[in-house]
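Q: Could you fold this chain for me?
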Amino acid sequence: MKMTAKQSMSGVVLPRTSTAYQEEPSAQAVAAPQGYWRAALPRYGVSVLLEKRAVAVNIGLSAALMAACVIKSRNHFPEQVIYDCADSILYLVREDRKALLYALTFLHNEPEWVRHAVRVAAQMADIMLIRDAHSTQVREVMVGTLLHTMGKPLLVSEELPSLKSNMTPRQKTLLKQHPNVLWDKLVSLNWKPSPVCKDILLNANERLDGSGYPSGLKGPQLSENVILLSVIKIINKLTYERNGIKPRTPLDAYRLVSDSYQSYDKATLVEFMQCYGLYPIGSLAKFSGCFLAWIIDIDSKGMPVKVNVVKNLAFMDTNIDSILDAGDFSQIGRLEGVVDPNDYVVKFLKL
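A: Sure. Below is the predicted structure, expressed as structure tokens.
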């Protein structure tokens, strides 16, 4: 797929960049949703059309990769890049949170630690701003969340040659030191984060029952931000493929976290469920008429009200690109549930 351009109503032409969908040369491949959404760019005084798949991808991805490379090879911390990244995500959450959530699903080919950090950061901002639209901590929490996995690539060495391979018990223990490794590196670079940011950097992987790492902190020792972050992180981990482990459906993930009530705050889990529902925006859903569709929007009860139909499984050699609202769902049948895109050979390839 070659780069093309899209012209906005203001006459500004933007290249289509970042992540694009490309099918496998297989009859079972499912077309990814198409389209753009409109966003205002105050800095330039224009309104532009942005490709849905590209909106979220560039924001945190380039910042995280760049910061990791710079920290490891040049011994310089790109503070402005990270803060610009956080500000961009905050802007998009406030401008059109559902469009951002939809775009996040197209983070597929990037390193797992990058995808995890960007998705979790966006959802942290989303829930924090729902709780308090004028939160004074959200920006620092965003910076800490974008950075919190960055110690992992710093650990890659002969002893830990890859973050993708099946690890030995010793390698898993070593990897759990990534928060401390990142902190030591930041200290050596003379960067001093705020107390709120530091709390996220060091404690993002702690749990209520003390089973987390690196310090084994327990309930009263954890901040409200870390308690929220721990729930978002575990659901993200369970609902996306990691190192060859198939993702769980949102319902299965919620049940598993609920059963782990000693590790995760149940009230926060309920809040998350109420916010994103059983059919989160960006999920691929299967309908009884043998149709597959990406969920674009949900109502206050978490039920899909707008989808992008991309495949009729009765005709595997044909792709569809049709947007349907809830009133037209009778055309595709009853909603059966969320499915794994990998089961239908969906591939997201970077241009």
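A (continued): The longest strand covers residues 304-312.
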